[in-house]
User: Fold this.
Amino acid sequence: MAALQQSPIAFHQAKSPPSNRIFNKTLTPKPVLLSFSSSISSLKLAGKTNRRGGNAAGATMVGTAAGSYASAIAEIAKSNGTLEATSTDIEKIEKLFSEKQTYDFFTNPTISIEKKREIIDQINQSLDLQAHMANFLNVLIDSKRIELITDIVKEFEVFYNKMTDTELAIVTSVVQLESQHLAQIAKGVQRLTGSKNVRIKTVIDPSLVAGFTIRYGSSGSKLVDMSVKKQLEEIATQLDFSDISLAV
Assistant:
């Protein structure tokens, strides 16, 4: 199974100075002016009907709930000038909950909310999360919606990319590519899309044999396939031996 890794590389236009990559101002940390709980309360998402279901309607409702949470996080971060720091916190949370043991603990209904909040407090201190992100995790625990965390992370990434004119490119290869190669790929994707920024995520997939693939666009709808696997499949298609029988 392919392993997903977050690459630290992000390509930005040379015209933008280091402290001015996304907005035309320096992103200086400011006090949090909005609480996550007060912002999310207006979304009225406490109902249990939004939990993950086994049909298409259930899946749509989950997507709506996750999108509402993600939108609230993005708006709070934008209003406080902490969008970049919040994106970093989201990556920390994504990595944490990608561990099965962590996810299973927090989604286990037999474990009390008090115990979960106790562990969340330890996590907040360990990861050094911002106040509104720590509050966000506690809101999910209290409302028993922590199972949405993976969907919320994905939805936040969509909002972040739109707010910062960032194109996400997923690069799949057999081994981890060198940073200079990823930078070249980022420049290529930027030329193809015209976006201000390109963010790279890397996936390791041994089945490609060699080479790499690049997915970008809405929901990864566009593909650049430079893998040996594709070349072998094309050769196999051209060399159709299905009508040849071997003598025994």
